[in-house]
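Protocol step 4 of 6: record predicted structures for both targets in the notebook before any analysis. Target 1:
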Amino acid sequence: MKIVLTEFVTLDGVSQGPGSPTEDTTDGFTRGGWLVPYFDEVFVSRTVEWLRRADGLLLGRRTYDAFARDWPQITDPADPFSGLMNSLPKYVVTRTPVDAAWNPTTVLTSPDEVGELRNQPGRELQIHGSARLGNALLQAGLVDVVRLAVVPTVLGAGRRLFEQPGDASGLRLTAQEATPSGLLLLEYEHVGAAPLGAYEGVTAYV
């Protein structure tokens, strides 16, 4: 299976609390809900398509607890996400005890176990939220695809998606789309170490 890091981010890289002002108030964050004004039909359609490619969800402990609390409460049969979110296999990566009542849930305790899962046949194992887990797996070379919805907002506060120290990662753009509301939907393939170079004038590159 491919491991796909699927994230919503602002232009300044914030991934904290996209869905509600009360979704994640860690460290006093009060600017949540920044994604919601940009929902449109194209965004919903594409994100449903993405979720339908998943054979499982890979989640960090904090995201798992929040999702396990909230998603089972969404029972509207017309909601395009809730049926998939509640029925897909969940894999929570944690070394601390967890109430794994959001079925079906499997607890993983190390990147090695994530790697073993990645080596199994299948389509996509998707990371949603869980920025710390996504960063750690990207640094470990276990993320195959980075899929972003970029919101045209600069928050100036909040936890950013890519903050972990480590080697620079190289990505290759494989898909792009702008929605009517101004969201950019971007998909990248992870290609290993980021290339570096020194500018030597335009003629050196054409």
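Target 2:
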Amino acid sequence: MHQVTEYQDPGYTIVGNHLTQHRSLSGLAIGLAAYIQSLPEGAPADIRTLAKRFPEGRERIAAALRELEAYGYLERVRRRTDDGRMVTVTISYNNPAATRARRAREDAAQTKRRTAVEPPPAAPAPSPASAPTPAPVPSPAPTLEPPRGRTGPPQPPPVRQPPQPSHAPEPSHAPQPSRTLQLPQPATREHHTPAAALLANLRHDDPRLLLSVRDIHRLTPPVAAWLERGASPDAVRSALTTGLPPTLRHPAALLAHRLAELLPPPLPAATPCAPTAPPPPLQTCDGCERAFRAPVPGRCRDCRQPGQQSREPLSMKLS
């Protein structure tokens, strides 16, 4: 291949090779991403507008936009305007990997600043083994006045004892370590694109299954492993959306649990059938001229049996 590169006047768009040479995106999705990145800020980029611009039709354009949304090049969010209307805002990312890295650095810096401002944690409570045995606290006197009818010096007020540490350890608010969920991984990347599209379309079955780009990236390999083991897309969708709880707080965690626990077994290898020998060729009997199968010419079984009269040839006329 030979390229001819000419200088271009202002009015060009810089597109990364990570998009133009993407191995999982279709050609229509790559072209739409390049076109959307060339649009000015605030230009419409919905399905209806793109269908008027390109001849592919709404269905193919919608599928291509779902591919871009699954791989992080596009994000569509619902926002409320000042007058109370709900609109869909399309956000285009020319380099999703760099955007995720920058956000991770900002989150780490913000966490570091918050940690520096917070006071140091309090000393932990002593364990039950090392805690000293508290002395018994005397019960206070019911009154400070001497009983009537008795003489004597007034009783001193009771001494208030400081609170003693309790034997029971304080409950820890630190998150308990949970069992690491091992998500299945496919052997190849052949099914990654339909798997990502399947996860992005789960919102149509249940609006609560609206997954983020990060969750789709994490759950795409397990769904591809299901497809690689012979499960149809409808079977995967049914396993993920059937019997959802009435309260769904973490949809991505529930889907990851089902993908790991309900993984079907791999298809058994097909057993090769032993080749069958071809039947012997057809021969014409020398005695009765009937057709029979035998490796060499000769007589049929009826003509070879002793003591049995052989049949007349077919060519002979009956008297």
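Step 5 preliminary note on target 2. Residues 167-178, 309-319 have pLDDT under 50 and may be disordered. The radius of gyration is 41 Å.
Proceed to step 6 after PI sign-off.
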